[in-house]
Amino acid sequence: MATFLYKIGRLAFRRRHFVALIWVALLTLAGVGATSAPAAGSSSFSIPGTEAQKAFDLLEQRFPGMSADGATARVVFEAPGGEKVTAKHHKAVVERTVRELRDGSEVTSVADPFSGHAVSKDGMIAYAQVKYKVSGMELEDASKDALKQAAQSARDDGLTVEIGGDALSAVPETGATEVIGIAIAAVVLVITFGSLVAAGLPLLTALIGVGIGVSTITALANALDLGSTTSTLAMMIGLAVGIDYALFIVSRYRAELAEGREREEAAGRAVGTAGSAVVFAGLTVVIALVGLAVVNIPMLTKMGVAAAGTVAIAVLIALTLIPALLGYAGRKVKPAGEKSRMLGGGRAAAAKGRPNMGTRWASFVVRRPVAVLLLGVIGLGAAALPASQLELGLPDDGSQPTATTQRRAYDLLSEGFGPGFNGPLMVVVDAKSSEHPKAAVATVTDDIKGMRDVVTVTPPTYNASGDTAMITVVPGSKPSSATTEDLVHGIRGAGAGITADTGAKLLVTGSTAMNIDVSQKLNDALIPYLALVVGLAFLLLIVVFRSILVPLKAALGFLLSVTAALGAVVAVFQWGWLSGLMGVEETGPVMSMMPIFMVGVVFGLAMDYEVFLVTRMREAHVHGENPGQAIVTGFRHGARVVTAAAVIMIAVFSGFIGSSESMIKMIGFGLAIAVFFDAFVVRMALVPAVLALLGRKAWWLPKWLDRVLPNVDVEGEGLRTRRDEGRRDPDQDRELVGV
């Protein structure tokens, strides 16, 4: 591996014009594809195998043209100053607005509030429900503008009018904090390298990689049914790993220059050694992201595969474009520690002999491993405690900021019709196999009316053949409550008896039922997903480190960090701690896919630092150092780089906390805090403590397994035979450092 990558690094350095031209061409091609591709809408949200999805599919079959998954808008009217919306002049305004809403070409139906019994008991609030042919993200701007204009016209006539539902769905905005995150990354790179040119290389290559990845996703979005969240996630992860991987290569290049090697040789060795770590770190991220497919939620699978593609591009850029750009940079990228050598006299000697921060920290941990291990485990355990109170759900209009019209419409409907009105259940009765379909539907209706927490059961709506009916059930509790979940399970539980008595099948769907099914599906998939991803990565790390205990320690440390991160997410987004600082206006259940998503992404990212840091320790151990010395050597060479990489990744992820989309905000915070816990507590404290306690046992591998495993040579042992090749002569060294 190291020898092969070494040759790639030297070739890219030598043929830099050709390599740069290829990447510029790919970026241009992806950009042209993105600009010429048709605009994509939202990714279709289907959950194969769930009862809610089966009900939607049945509705599409039995009620053709109904567009069960089409966008919905609830236009909510409130009369001013205690007046009633049923008053003659207010009623006329509402009826005129309903007529205006029916004019749209994408509108399938508009329910009049007065004929559809959509007026609150006190007569102060009413709503008109608008159904569209397509989803909210696919609605034309003209349809959205007509909806807003009709609402504004009613406002001008004295009514309070708000619009709920998904008809006004828009691409989420990330805000200025994303730019701030990149700016912080730039500052960290300048401090790390002490050079604007060296600092600019990781940023430039990361932006090129993200540009290619996101543009490709945009170009294929319509054909592959990719939503806007897919490109945002790819951008988030692509920026973080792109900067980190380039940072690893450039840092090793400067270290090789400091050893006195020619620049082409240094580039080859940097790619051969640090590049090997980048390849395996990238593989763990790709495995974790592609592994999301086991959940069998198409949207999640597409997000994972798209993000994995961006990571693969980041790895290829680090191995080829970075050495090519290093060739262009020439002497502007200086050897590591050159500033210290230029200090002169005793100051230079002192600077050279003084151990760095990484060395001092590693020496401290090696001397007191038990205390560091206990403190780290107890701290992460305390942070993980809130995770025991984790509540899962999917965001709805109730989690929107209070300034949005969707949230105000949600609150008005709760006020006028009860908290359960915003999450009605749709019960589908398939009576095709029943001898008396209408009698079967009547039985279902009566049974549901007698259930606890049911406020309203609407009369059934039949299809053209009369063998299928829809019944809307309004719960008494809010959509995300445990009581509503119990009601869904209760209705479904009664379905078995109804089928036995009448032959009719009963299915429960709607957004609330779908959320419950998604949460259950994700919970059921978590353990198999963990087993698959951690198992594959464990095997990969055995090959990398040629050890059993080191990969096992890496996996256990990851579980600590991800659980602590989930605890932090619960504390902020569910309990409301520091919610003002994070811009969280409404607390509530944690997004259903957050745990499994964090497991996938954080595991891959955590292994980046594990591979880079422990590979340097393994390299030192292979070259003859005892376990304690190897730990200190690994930190001397790797701690500064890993620290900088972690700070950069945290800054990039934190930049997405400013998103207007609650899902992106939660993911950004969760990944940022997870990287903090994993990099600074697990990898920088627990890892050296455990390795110090294990001693030589850490690198134990059964002899039979040692013979079976391929030797990938991540440490660059194959390059040791080239120790003296490519070294500069002393006169060139003195010229470079300005002596």
Outline the biggest β-sheet: 5 strands, antiparallel
> How much β-strand is present in the residues?
5-15%
Query: What proportion of the residues is helical, as a percent range?
Result: 55-70%
Radius of gyration from the CA trace? 30 Å
Question: What is the terminal separation in angstroms?
Answer: 38 Å
Structural commentary:
The chain is α+β, with helices and mostly antiparallel strands and about 750 residues long. Helix content is about 65%, strand content about 5%. It is built from 25 helices and eleven strands. The strands form three sheets. Strands 6, 7, 8, 9 and 10 form a five-stranded antiparallel β-sheet that branches. Strands 2-3-1-4 form a four-stranded antiparallel β-sheet. Strands 5-11 form a two-stranded parallel ribbon. A hairpin with a 5-residue loop joins strand 8 and strand 9. The two termini are about 40 Å apart.
Which features would summarize this protein structure in a list?
4-stranded antiparallel β-sheet; 739 residues; 5-stranded antiparallel β-sheet; alpha+beta; 25 helices; disordered C terminus
Task: Draw up the topology in text.
Blueprint: H1 2-14, H2 16-36, H3 51-62, E1 72-78, H4 88-101, E2 107-111, E3 125-132, H5 141-156, E4 160-165, H6 177-193, H7 196-224, H8 228-258, H9 263-290, H10 298-329, H11 338-341, H12 345-353, H13 357-367, H14 369-384, E5 392-393, H15 405-417, E6 425-430, H16 437-449, E7 454-457, E8 461-462, E9 468-475, H17 482-502, E10 505-509, H18 511-545, H19 549-574, H20 579-582, E11 590-591, H21 594-622, H22 627-654, H23 662-694, H24 703-708, H25 730-737
Helix pairs in contact: 1-2, 1-9, 1-10, 2-7, 2-10, 4-5, 6-7, 6-22, 7-8, 7-10, 8-9, 8-10, 8-22, 9-10, 9-18, 9-21, 13-22, 13-23, 14-19, 14-23, 16-17, 18-19, 18-21, 19-21, 19-23, 21-22, 21-23, 22-23
